Amino acid sequence: MNIMRLLLIVISIFSLISAQQKPVTTAQMKKQIELLVAERDDLQSKLTQYEENRDALLSLQKALELLKNENEDLRLKLEQMKNTISENDQGSETMLKEFADNKKELEFLRNRVSQLEKENDDLNPYSKTGIKEGSLVVLSEEITPAKPMNLDRVNPRLGPPWGRPRGMVIINVLINERGEVLSARILQGLTGESSEIKDANEACLEAAKRVLFDPARSKEGRRVKVWQAVGFYLD
Question: I want to staple 179 with a disulfide (CB 3.0 to 4.6 A). Which of 15, 42, 200, 215 is the partner?
Fold first, then answer.
């Protein structure tokens, strides 16, 4: 008789837990799919832009290297001309004219090198902010925060409905450049010392670790690590 009563109690508990879960509607699933498709297209566009900038940067670097080599050749020629002038004064006027022409050409090449170096800096994604892929940064106007992808499907695993504590729990999570949670800590928990409150805070902490994110990005599109807050409302 005691076994039958125990089975009835267990069945009642599972029925109550099942009643608390809300099924995902078709509209919610469609909205999630549209969001993922839009973010995928945005990422593809940024990747294409980055590849174009990278190719342009490589071309400029090659051109700069060629100009540096030409500059070195001209310097050697000028040194040779100076030595020749010191050894033989014959034809000095012609040689001096050629020297002046070469000097003008050298000045032109130096200006061209300076211009290419400036263009190289403008194309270099690290030149202005110094933020590299995977850098740990602080959220600011320069950083686009990470976006939770499955927060509406991640719920803290709480105990039976009766006696559950209520309130807001805020978890601070460290999100890497792949959108994964590396670490989590309670920023604002439920107040109190009861075991129910401690269990609820711990359940929210574990739930935050299961959230997936579209990673934070710098202005140049670099994916970075950030600490961000995730909130769970317990009712």
Answer: 215
